[in-house]
Design goal:
By secondary structure, this protein is an all-alpha fold. The protein has 21 helices and no strands.
């Protein structure tokens, strides 16, 4: 690949061409009402809310969907594992059919080939069961064998040392799986918590995001990078990783190679942070809510952040000295990343489009469109909020004790289990689509600019999460 700092065109890898096609699709902006069934964000809403509604209807009629939301039980020896799987084989088959129908229908409508998607998803589901089983081992926490990390590592090993046909990428729908998981997460996150902690999350996220963006932008400018590339790199580090990079690339009229460069750096640093942040948090015995907020502040991709937050949250109650509840880590991350940072994609896109068109390009008759905010807004966040409101309304008629005894095991628990399946599909897919040979082609100057921003982001996020706003993050579930 040519140096990204040169003016010559850059030869894109196959994966980067796919990213560029996604960027071209986003540049089409709105497709009218067709967006409701052609876009992943809306399908994530339909699927996630559909599951929540079915779960609620079953609950209100004295039933539960927990039969279909099967996950491996805790085991000590291999005989227990085999026996448990044999006893519940019918449930796994039924659940697989459920997921397959949902994904096959939705991906086909979105334009993917079922002949490629179906065998690929079969592969993902089978390995997801194995990943769940490893995580259910009673010694897994001792060896840091958390399902998200196992899924990621196993996927990377398969992708880089064994290799899979490129057509199988059709089933490794990272963004789709994580968006569905986030919508389902809303059903396990009370809306009152979002309202109460949201302002803190937005303040903290704004401080870190603005600081990180300006750092990357001006360091990049100092190194002589194209200011459009600086903007795309800054958004990738400050807002929402892959989605932010693509959105800002379209907003500022970036070159074709700019988004893939930023996405490459986002992926590299996101993978590093999956391991770095939980390990440092564990060494310092951080409260799970505080660690979740730090991860939400300093991770660069939703999927990677969920993996790190879930891995650390699982240590609570299993590793001595880790205060807080398991859910606090995921809640803290969600409030910081999904509520605090991701929802600002549209605003960042509009502001940078305004700057690009009025100061950088000065094209006659070119005016930034306020509708850019809606076009770039991550629609699946709406599903997250709706799911939270639905469960909050159902739970409002119960006392806290009744909620823990009735609502949580019969309604929220099964939805949480299906959410975890969606996350494992996502984490495994990240590993399967991470090819190191394609991540090694970025020039040194973009790497330097982005890495300086990473350093500022992590240190500032740590200060805000562990000192300035620590009181909020330590009391999420109180």
């Amino acid at each position: 690949m040519a140096n990204p700092n040169d003016n010559e065109p850059i030869e894109l890898t196959e994966t980067q061409k796919e990213w560029d096609e996604e960027a071209d699709d986003l540049r089409l902006k709105s497709v009218g009402w067709k967006e409701l069934y052609l876009k992943e964000d809306w399908w994530a809403i339909w699927v996630g809310i559909g599951i929540v509604v079915v779960a609620v209807l079953a609950f209100l009629n004295g039933g539960s969907i927990k039969w279909i939301a099967i996950t491996p039980h805790r085991w000590h020896d291999f005989g227990q594992l085999v026996s448990d799987f044999g006893a519940h084989a019918g449930q796994y088959v039924s659940q697989f059919i459920l997921w397959l129908v949902i994904f096959a229908v939705s991906t086909r409508v979105m334009g993917y080939k079922l002949a490629e998607y179906i065998p690929s998803f079969v592969f993902v589901y089978i390995f997801s069961i194995l990943i769940f089983m490893i995580g259910a081992w009673d010694q897994a926490h001792h060896y840091n064998l958390e399902p998200p990390l196992v899924a990621l590592l196993l996927g990377m090993l398969i992708s880089n040392f064994i290799g899979l046909p490129r057509w199988m990428d059709s089933g490794f729908r990272v963004e789709y799986y994580i968006k569905i998981g986030i919508v389902l997460l809303g059903a396990t996150l009370p809306f009152t918590l979002i309202v109460w902690a949201g302002p803190v999350a937005i303040v903290q996220a704004s401080i870190v995001s603005i600081t990180t963006f300006l750092t990357i932008f001006f360091v990049g400018k100092k190194l002589g990078l194209d200011r459009r590339l600086c903007a795309v790199l800054g958004a990738g580090g400050a807002v929402c990783g892959v989605s932010g990079s693509i959105a800002i690339a379209g907003a500022v009229g970036a070159k074709k190679e700019h988004a893939p460069i930023a996405i490459t750096l986002v992926i590299v640093w996101a993978i590093v942070m999956i391991f770095f942040l939980p390990l440092v948090s564990r060494a310092m015995h951080l409260h799970t809510g505080v660690a979740g907020a730090w991860i939400g502040t300093s991770e660069f991709a939703d999927a990677a952040g969920f993996a790190a937050a879930q891995a650390y949250g699982n240590l609570a109650g299993n590793v001595p000295g880790i205060p807080g509840k398991p859910d606090d880590a995921v809640w803290g991350f969600t409030l910081m990343k999904v509520v605090g940072r991701d929802i600002w994609i549209g605003i960042w896109a509009f502001v940078l489009a305004l700057i690009a068109t009025t100061r950088w390009e000065r094209k006659a008759g070119t005016q930034p469109n306020p509708a850019e905010i809606w076009w770039r807004f991550p629609k699946f966040v709406l599903g997250f909020v709706i799911a939270s409101v639905i469960i909050t309304l159902i739970s409002s008629g119960y006392t806290f004790a009744e909620y823990n005894k009735i609502v949580k095991p019969e309604l929220v628990g099964p939805v949480k289990a299906l959410r975890t399946w969606a996350f494992i599909f996502c984490f495994f897919s990240i590993g399967l689509t991470t090819r190191f040979r394609e991540l090694s082609s970025t020039g040194s100057k973009p790497v330097t600019a982005f890495s300086v921003g990473v350093l500022v982001n992590v240190l500032l996020g740590f200060l805000l999460s562990t000192i300035v706003f620590a009181g909020y993050w330590q009391n999420l579930s109180h």
